[in-house]
Amino acid sequence: MITETNEVSDALAAAAARWPGLHASELLRRLVAEGHAALRTSVEAERCAVEQTSGALTGVYQPGDLEALRQEWPA
Q1: 62 falls within a domain
Q2: Does residue 13 lie within any of the structural domains?
């Protein structure tokens, strides 16, 4: 069961334009599947970016740098 808010109505209208002739229940299933695929892709892209940049700044900051920056901030 899902409440048909304005956002849900807009999503269903967009889905109906993409997949014409389907019932609302099938449109919702497809929207969920598309959303899930988009989330998986996003998470995978984020993980890949972290792995590619991991260690890129090793050695750039020295011990005490963070404390020195904090001392520059207004109290």
Answers
A1: no
A2: yes
CA distances from 55 to 16, 49, 52, 64 (A): 46, 12, 9, 19
- The tens digit of pLDDT for each residue in 5-18 reads 999 999 999 999 99
Residues of the domain holding 12: 1-53
CA distance 58 to 11: 45
Residue 41 in domain: yes
Q: Which helix (H) or strand (E) holds 29?
A: helix 24-53
pTM surpassing 0.90?
A: no
Q: What is the per-residue pLDDT across 42-74, written as a single tens digit (0 to 9) for each?
A: 999 999 999 999 999 999 999 999 999 999 998
Q: Computed from CA positions of residues 21, 26, 30, 31, in that sequence, does the dihedral angle turn out positive or negative?
A: positive
- Please tell me the total count of domains within the chain: 1
Structure confidence at residue 1 (pLDDT):
85
